[in-house]
Amino acid sequence: MTTWRACSSCKKPISHAARYWVCSVSTCNRARSPLAFCSVRCWDAHVPVMNHRSAWAEERRAPTRQEADAASAERAPRRRVARSSAPARRSTEDDEILIVASRLKAYIDRKGGGMNTSADVLPVLSDLVREAALDAIDSARADGRKTVKARDFKRR
């Protein structure tokens, strides 16, 4: 395999380990039909066709040839895997802020009688949300469900 994938818009090849862009809209990023664009211009060409109201291009890096080969070898039937207690290596997606800063700051201002919120609160709170979400995922899996429900989140 000489290229990783073809651009979804212009059909130019996207090489292994090359930069490419994806659409921020979730329907454009489905596992069975992922869209990948060789440039922001190609991504921009698909926006009016897909009728996106609010979207942006997210830069990604294509897998190396070895990573792509390993991923295709792993496409065996999936089986349940218990989450390890060892800390996992964090990817850049795990560093994303999951909390709406303006809403949190407004809430703390309102409830705290004019208190301010430091910027370093958001990553810490996002980590707490990630931890709770992972526990809820484990709970749903243990019940044999593929849907995380409110009851999967444990209240302290």
Word description of this protein:
The protein has 156 residues and is of the alpha+beta class. The protein folds into two domains: 69 residues, no CATH class; 61 residues. Helices cover 34% and strands 9% of the residues. It starts with a strand and ends in a 14-residue tail after the last helix. The mean pLDDT is 83.
In short:
By secondary structure, this protein is α+β, with helices and mostly antiparallel strands. The chain has helices at 40-50, 65-73, 101-111, 121-142; strands spanning 5-6, 13-14, 19-23, 57-61. It folds into two domains: 5-73, no CATH class; 92-152.
Topology summary:
Blueprint (H helix, E strand, L loop, with lengths): L4 E2 L6 E2 L4 E5 L16 H11 L6 E5 L3 H9 L27 H11 L9 H22 L14
Antiparallel strand pairs: 1-2, 3-4
